Amino acid sequence: MDRRYRPDGRLMDVDGARLHYHHFEALQDAAGKPALLFLHGASGNAYDSMMAFRDSFEGQYELIFLDRPGLGFSERDEAKHGSLPAQAELIDAFLAKLGVDEVVVVGHSLGGAVTAALGLAAPDRVKGMAFLAPVSHVWPGGVNWYYTLASLPVIGTLFCQFLVWPAAKFLAPAAIANVFYPDPVVDGYGEKIQLERLFHPKVFRANARDITGLKKSIMEQSRVYSTLRQPSLAVSGTEDTVVWPSIHCEGLLQDLPHMELLMLDGVGHMPHLTHTGQIVRALERLIQRVKVSDDVGATPGLEKAV
To answer: Cα–Cα distances in Å, from 153 out to 4, 75, 99, 157, 244?
Structure first.
């Protein structure tokens, strides 16, 4: 299955969990700039955001690409680290141990929900937040049946152990095409992010539990979004059929007082990989707002991009 893949980043033990991450130091002339922490979405790992943003930011900022707890090559204690607040506390402890005092967090999809949780848990450390095609608010409907099944006691473990891999190799290409639609899939995407790691039984089960528990966590978390005072950015494609911008990005624009919204016409759920340049420029604006926010505050804005 995933035997050809091995962790090639760094490993850190935090609160009984071993976290896998890639860490790139900034050059000396980057002194005074915040570090950038990238959090991937569901069914992914740190290679996804590293593919999108490493080349644009390496050397300018301290960069951290983290496999979220339980995903990629990161581990977690399910009893302690399964919820959004618990994952936020774990990531905050990771940043403290790494010596990162000021950070802008960039989260894609489900990673956007973790970004908000981290902003709530560590407002002094988290100086800015970027939400890329984020999950942030309660949505109608449920989740795919196989995530529900994978999350169940006993039978879920057996399902992940024996049935996920044979099914996944047939279903994965269509699933990837769906999350990119209507944009074309990046060449070699599954191989480049080592997608097979997702189908490891423990990883798939952790991913499923994240997804099935998300709606309840979001319901509680979104009630206090107005306390998030950091400069923020939300990015969404108008054709995103995975996470509806009318619910999530517009909800963030309404709830967060210092929010810029960047809407990309005709773009799907993976804008960081299909329209990287526009997002990099928006992130640079966010970083500038972070640098001046202590003195003059940040002003929410709206940009419509084609």
So the answer is: 29, 19, 38, 7, 31
